[in-house]
Design brief:
- The protein contains 15 helices and 4 strands.
- It has 467 residues and is mainly alpha-helical.
- The chain has a single domain, classed as Amino acid/polyamine transporter I.
- The strands form 2 sheets. The chain has a two-stranded antiparallel ribbon. The protein has a two-stranded antiparallel sheet with strand order 3-4.
- Helix 3 packs across helix 8.
Length: 467
Amino acid sequence: MSSHSIAERGYLPNEKFDDDGRVKRTGTWKSASAHIITAVIGSGVLSLAWCFAQLGWIAGTITLALFSVITMFTSILLTDCYRSPDPVTGKRNYTYMDAVKANLGTLQYKLCGIAQYGVLTGITIGYTTTTAISMAAINKSNCFHKHGHQADCSVHNNSFMVIFAVIQIILSQVPNFHKLSPLSVIAAIMSFTYSLIGIGLSIAKIIDEGIGETSITGRPIDKDFSGMEKMWKTFSALGDVAFAYSFCFVLIEIQDTLKSSPPENKQMKIATAIGIAASTVFYMLCGVLGYAAFGNDAPGNFLTGFGFYDPFWLIDIANICIVIHLLGAYQVLAQPFFGFVENWSKKKWPQNKLITNEFSICGTDFNVFRLTWRTTYVIVTTIIAMIFPFFNDFVGLLGAGTFWPLSVYFPIELYMSQAKIRKYSFTWIWMQILSLACLIVSLVAAVGSTRGLITSVQSFEPFQSVS
């Protein structure tokens, strides 16, 4: 069959298959926007008030704005690399790694895989920790309301991590990314809800108690807070902001859910603009109002700073929304890794029936390898979360590790390769300068977060996380 007839076949209104022979994609810029918001507005939003406390009014605002603009720019570059060599009619790249391999070669393809799936694994570990903290907060809130403010309502987080893991094992059996749109829509709604609750509580606190002790440069240096400590916290805060905007590593996978007409890159650019713009508005409100409410003593998770007493039910709703949102966000980030391992295994052992055979149970596709592998992944990440349940520093390290390679370097290199940007041209030079500047930011953020993690580990016993 000619390529022309295949293309025509892919665009017939009642056709079941796309131009590449795969089941017809049905996603739109609306569903892609939901996926992006689900991936972007995650646990990172909870630490932004703390980031402002380290950076101050000026640096905090500028940092958020810069990361927003850079992420928007590089994401739009990446949308044109879903198809190669032409962004509209070229061959599809189903994953981020496929796009790198098609444009940059095998070596960078392997490096991208290490970075992408390492980061995805790390974020799912972080989401396990964050969800457990929110579930524990609900338990504590209800305990204080029932037994009084003086009651001992401390609780171990491990049991909540196990509950979260059991739910994820069930959700992980969804065969592929394309079937997650309803879950992403619900998760996106939840992320808006708890962000709005945090904003509302911040405003109420400001009205009731006034603006907290803030400054242009953030938390001041004093006898209890040295200049060196200020520097480390500032570096860690940069990592937290970088993490808050990280989603490029699943952009191609999200774009692969879009239907073919209008062209995927045009739809994805709209979705990217909407997703990042909406996220930035909420980030700025949460960061600014959270800092104004708590001042230089802003907690790492600003929702926990409002206490568990009054109004306890509103704090409960916010934390329930976090739990529901991260249930979906975990899958949005884990599914690309699941798919990569399963596709690689099928190519490696095509005759192995445990890997290739699909069974239908109650109308649902079932595969022995998929069940075993995905269950094992969830269990392992949960155990790691129990060993290292550190929120801020872990988030900062993930952000530092994610931002430059996956959100800046590869998108820029992919675009310049596909668009055939001439070496040492004006465009090439300023893009390299941008990449180098972002690399420096990522390195200092990684150093600050690593130092914080080392400090936390020295005073912590594994499996003993308590809220």
